[in-house]
Amino acid sequence: MHHPDEFSHCQEGDVVMLVQVKPNAAVVKMSKALLAVHGGVTSHVAIAARENHKPSVVGLPEEILSHVKDGDIVKVDADLGTISCG
Length: 86
Fold this sequence. Notes:
Blueprint: E1 15-18, H1 25-30, E2 33-36, H2 44-51, E3 56-58, E4 74-77, E5 82-85
Parallel strand pairs: 1-2, 2-3
Antiparallel strand pairs: 4-5
């Protein structure tokens, strides 16, 4: 479960990275893309992204959390299932 203000710093068009697989609707709608450590093509993140026409990459390795920080520029290629930073 997410804390109510956990995403309060997010802005329209941000790429949002989640550890959990259940984003709230407001985060999905404002995001440019969704990334998730846990989940697969039938996960909450993937379904929410698809329903809202947002690219997503799910099932990322947990070590990504130590490499990507708030404010980083992230390129998402949902077709290939890859992300790159920088």
